[in-house]
Amino acid sequence: MSDLPTLSITEASKKLAAKEISAVELAEACVAESQKKNPTLNAYLEVFDDVRAQAEAADLRRAGAEAAEVHPLLGIPLAIKDNILIAGKKVSAASKMLEHYVATYDATAITKLKTAGAVFVGRTNMDEFALGGSTENSAFGVTKNPHDESRVAGGTSGGSAAAVAANLALGALGSDTGGSVRNPASFCGVVGLKPTYGAVSRSGLIAAVSSFDQIGPLTKTVADAELLFNAIKGKDVLDSTSIESTKSEIRNPKRKIGVPQSLLEGVQPEVLAQFEASLKKLESQGYVIDRSIEFPSAKAALAAYYIINFAEVSTNLSRFDGVRYGLSRKGESLWEDYAKSRAEGFGLETRRRIMLGTYVLSAGYYDAYYGKATEARKRLRAEFVEALQKVDSIATPTMPTPAWKIGEKSDPLSAYLADIFTVSANLTGNPAISVPMGTVSEGGSTLPVGIQLTAAHGDEAALFTLGRVLE
Ligand code: GLN
């Protein structure tokens, strides 16, 4: 039964319920697949040693429960990004700084998944502290794209996306600060959801940019993404920015999709062709495509995003000083202790962001950079709110290109520019999903690409509806 890992969560859940398969069989099949493929892909930084025990516990629970009490995730093997805490397991944010750190508590999303009975296969590779877009910034090696091993899997949740695409788990959790769930979903041909800001608790997520970060699911199908999202969402006393998700408050669908035509200029022609084909599909289902919507502040989105990102990264990572947490190196003075620990513990991109963030927050430059960026953010948010009163969703390609070659974007600016479509939803807090929209050919490879849909705050339901139409 080696095809077990190819099942979607929904399919596997039915088979488990019908007792056609056991959680142990399912988990062991995923572990076997990982043993075969992970040495090349490097999707997992660690496959846990208690996967079988977790699955046995799930089987026992099912045997002792009424079918109606059983959560659809009971016994489902999931991959978890290496910045989400699971008590008793290592969690490193793919950084040398936290290489040996063991989590002392569960992230709220993990608590909820444990209550449901999910099985955790391992922790997945990522860009260090979720800073990047290709998983090339991991301190523990790049994750390779299962569709072409000479290419990146995307990032920063590249390990989670590759694990799902290569059937090393049935679904995964990632985190999205400026596209890190959607970008690797697009590059690896899976579904990725960035929920409304606050819909999923950030308690137990290692902070990158607290005002952008959201945990989100990566799955094979839209139905699976909805299932995982519903399992992890909700207001949480441990995160004061969390909100009760408003799933029940379904807005009146207008059957209209907005396309910000002027933003599509830099998109690779083959990607654009797939995007147009997806829009046609929506039209054939009775949706009207409105190409008149515009976001005047979108031209400032990337700059605003990166300024706020650097600023919050510099403050969030200041706690890693070699004294309170993380890697500790001794120098001649306390100052040298800090300098040595931070120079050795953080990678190049992380250090770059800490320095730039410290700069944009410094007394003389605060108004010129951080102040302006927050102003641009406010305007963009207002423009999104207005546009989403006219349309159900805003559609763009998720990424302007398919997965790039490992090493191709070593210039950080060129990597930042690839985030043109994803950062807006983090600036504005809107939910956004990436759904596969076919493939393009490049350099002899067939590479998946994704379409991104963004909806009004709290309206994940619209994304699931549209996502199903496109699937
Ligand atoms: N590529 C973006 C960045 O480098 C997004 C990262 C993320 O979402 N964690 O900040």
Helix content: 25-40%
* Overall body shape: globular
Average of the residue pLDDT scores: 96
| CATH architecture verdict of the domain at 4-232 | Alpha-Beta Complex
- Strand neighbour order, sheet with most strands: 1-3-2-6-8-7-12-13-11-9-10
Largest sheet: 11 strands, mixed
**Bound small-molecule species:** glutamine
How would you spell out the order of helices and strands?
A: HHEHEHEEEHEHEEHEHEHHHHEHHEEH
Indicate the proportion of strand residues.
5-15%
CATH-defined topology of the domain at 4-232: Amidase signature (AS) enzymes
CATH class of the domain at 4-232: Alpha Beta
Low-confidence stretches: none
- So how many helices? 15
What does this structure look like?
With 471 residues, the protein is α/β, with parallel strands linked by helices. 38% of the residues lie in helices and 15% in strands. The chain has helices spanning 9-17, 23-41, 51-63, 108-116, 158-165, 182-188, 222-232, 269-284, 301-316, 334-345, 348-360, 367-390, 412-417, 423-428, 460-470; strands spanning 44-47, 77-81, 119-124, 144-145, 148-152, 171-176, 191-194, 214-219, 256-258, 288-290, 393-397, 432-442, 445-454. It has an eleven-stranded mixed beta sheet, sandwiched between helices. The protein has a two-stranded antiparallel sheet with strand order 4-5. Helix 2 packs antiparallel against helix 3 (51-63) and helix 9 (301-316) packs across helix 11. The model has no long low-confidence stretch (mean pLDDT 96). It binds glutamine (GLN). Glutamine binds at residues 130-133, 156, 176-180, 208, 309, 419.
